[in-house]
Amino acid sequence: MAREIIHAGLANRSFIDRATTGFDEYAASVEAFTLAEGERLTGVPAAVIREAAHAYARADRAMICWTLGITEHHTAVDNVLSLINLSLLCGHVGRYGSGVNPLRGQNNVQGGGDMGAIPNKLTGFQDIESDAGARARFEAAWDCTIKPRYGWHLTQMFDAMERGELRTLYVIGENPAQSEANVHHARKLLDGLDFLVVQDILLTKTAALADVVLPSAASWCETEGTVTNSERRVQRVRKALDPPGEARDDLWILAELARRLGRDWGQPTAAQVWDEVRALSPMHRGMRYDRLDALGGIQWPCPDEEHPGSLRLHERLWADPVEGPLAPFSVVEHRPPYEALDASYPIRLTTGRRLESYNTGVQTNLYRSPLHRGESLDLSPEDAERLLVEEGEIVRVSSRRGAVEAPVRVDRSLRPGLAFMTLHFPDQVDSNVLTVDVTDPKSGTAEFKAAAIRVEKIAPAEGAAKATTTEPAWTSS
Hints:
Mean pLDDT: 93
Helix content: 25-40%
Number of strands: 19
Radius of gyration: 25 Å
Largest sheet: 7 strands, mixed
CATH architecture of the largest domain: 3-Layer(aba) Sandwich
Number of helices: 18
């Protein structure tokens, strides 16, 4: 699309010249990607690619939205950079109705990153290694020394477990024993830890492996606090119910744990914690609790208490002159999926979600729903016919890491050679046995969207059994 836009003279050169850097290098990098080459790589007809390119470039307003189908690849960051390049090429950024928008899979993914739940940033995306001033502010507030060194993200933690460098793990609100790619391998590493603590609202499969389980409250209705959505809007959460049994607010658990380890934080309220966030994070400084209530939420950055919040993050690129740094084009190279298809594994499996279900099903599978239909292997009509399998028939699905048995569902929206499964029903079909744990070197995201599989009919005697998961020997990638 980018090459076609450039060659058709549809690039927004006035925006490019005044607000971006690196365009010439970027233009040279896409020169080989003709419409014919795009069709060869993607299977999308050249005429359709051209039509999409012209429609996007000519639009008065245009937005690119993406989900995990872009990021759950070993080229995750490059995929996102490619979309950013496209938006810069046409000037579709920083204006009403235009932009790039990663749609989050959960309600507070953005808030987790904002609060520093990523290994290279402090609260407010302040860099741990390069921002000495930010480190000094946090050290003074917390009475500690912060090493100017990045931590491990999730994939690096599992790598460290395998090397024997990570022997103790504290898991809050995560279920890696069912959500990780190549899940048999992940479970073996979790089971081999010296000490595992899990803090969650339900007894997940990861909690079942734990030495200590800390039952926490449901943050959406049993605690006070904030969440941040993907438009950067910070909103209040208000307690409606007391947590059941011995469940406790996450904040209480962490403060009590700190006290028993010799750091008495007292009994901080959610409002007090938020005031600390505002004091240490410049982009949250103007977001008093009462302003969050009065305005129905505020979008960061909000640098002072008179600021209304930033409706559009990159509007500065349209100021004259541009405010802050110019937006860089990024040169990225095309790299195919890590696992090539071959005669033994000829079908591409992508995994994802269904509307009514939630991740590993720990919460949603407790409830009856007319939309629940259990796990299946979704195949195109052409593949089902070629494999001589019918709707509802139990088949064996194998990858280079393991095999499962699952009922077939014929889906006319799938193209030949592409299959689909979810991770919502691991007690029925443990689909993450199949997924490949090769990761993007920049983000650590596993390639859930592009495993190579084969599908085999099961002999009648075998097929009469309930769909189960088989566990072969695994190998690390």
